[in-house]
Design brief:
Helices cover 34% and strands 25% of the residues. The chain has 321 residues and is of the alpha/beta class. It folds into 2 domains: 2-135 and 280-310, 3-Layer(aba) Sandwich (Rossmann fold), CATH 3.40.50.720; 141-276, 2-Layer Sandwich (Dihydrodipicolinate Reductase, domain 2), CATH 3.30.360. The strands form 2 sheets. Strands 8-9-10-7-11-12-13-14 form an 8-stranded mixed β-sheet, covered by helices on one side. A 6-stranded parallel β-sheet has the order 3-2-1-4-5-6, sandwiched between helices. The termini are far apart.
């Protein structure tokens, strides 16, 4: 049995499952750990007394500590879900690794900057630990289909990627920065332009990938979450909308009335599947546990998160000039 603890006791740790709508899948790390076979949630940690009490009440009386070192010493967890604010991720991850924790489920962004991330990679290697960064869209069927279709050029060569996000690039848009590299397999980028007269935390931007694809990002300060990606290929357009809840595929076909001209036609049954976010937390945890057992790297790892971390820094730095 794997003993798991939570460091940080906010929404993604357990609160999303405290008063959630009726569904069959958990929305938080704690809710997932409580249900997952072979895993025992044994406690948590937060400096906030209200969060500690709320967590204990929700979890049926599990202990909650104010100081991470005390939690690690008292509980001796095999795994820690790090759900604290981003600025504390590096410190908390290092504390866990130094204490001998071998499995980390790390919320995004993994660290505050790429220098911290590089140091964390080095320490995890030294400690032979397995770390999964919770970019959970890498584990959803629609995004996996999108990746396969782009990399296999099912709809022809990829030309342009358009992403739309709100609120906040570091808070929500970072998922799409990760998808840029996940879907295309690109190993680099060249930043072309960043909006400097808009929102510092939700800027629009443009970049070019090594194989020539243009990426256009549109940020917005909106009262709702939006997380859309649309990929223009030579044979049509592939889109995942509303954070993964909806997909569409538009195929290029020759116009019957005007030979030599081509129009877009929507597929009745999208090749990307119906969409949906069911199982996103369980799939991420399953990958972490499997890789911890066999010595592999999770699909969303510290290594795979490096480019999106650096891109996030570059965009926000330019936006603040």
């Amino acid at each position: 049995m794997i003993r798991a603890a939570l460091l940080g006791l906010g929404n993604i740790a357990w609160k999303y499952d405290a008063n959630k709508p009726d569904n069959d899948f958990p929305l938080s790390q704690g809710g997932t750990l409580k249900r997952y076979p072979g895993v025992e949630l044994v406690g948590g940690c937060s400096p906030d007394a209200g969060d500690r009490q709320g967590f204990s009440n929700w979890s049926g009386g599990l202990p909650a500590f104010a100081i991470p070192e005390e939690m690690l010493e008292r509980l001796h967890p095999d795994m820690v879900g790090i759900c604290s604010p981003t600025l504390a991720h590096f410190e908390h991850a290092c504390l866990c690794l130094e204490a001998g924790v071998r499995l980390l489920w790390l919320e995004k962004p993994p660290t505050a900057n790429s220098d911290e991330l590089q140091q964390l990679i080095h320490l995890a290697e030294q400690r032979q630990a397995t770390v999964c960064v919770n970019y959970f869209r890498r584990y959803l069927p629609s995004y996996l289909h999108l990746r396969r279709m782009v990399q296999e050029q099912t709809m022809g060569a990829c030309q342009t990627l358009r992403i739309t996000y709100s609120p906040g690039l570091a808070r929500n848009g970072i998922h799409l920065l990760d998808q840029i590299f996940f879907v295309t397999g690109a190993q680099g980028y060249r930043l072309l332009w960043v909006e400097q007269d808009g929102s510092d935390d939700s800027p629009s931007f443009a970049l070019r990938l090594p194989e020539g694809q243009l990426v256009l990002g549109c940020g917005g300060t909106l009262p709702y979450h939006t997380n859309d990606i649309s990929i223009q290929c030579t044979g049509g357009i592939l889109s995942i909308l509303r954070g993964g809840k909806e997909t569409s595929v538009a195929e290029s076909r020759e116009n019957e009335l005007f030979p030599g001209f081509f129009d877009l036609h929507m597929q009745k049954n999208s090749a990307l599947g119906a969409g949906g976010v069911e199982g996103y937390m369980q799939n991420s945890l399953a990958d972490l546990l499997a890789c911890g057992a066999n010595g592999g790297q999770p699909q969303s790892s510290l290594y795979s998160a490096f480019l999106s971390q650096r891109l996030l820094e570059d965009i926000l730095k330019e936006a603040a000039i």
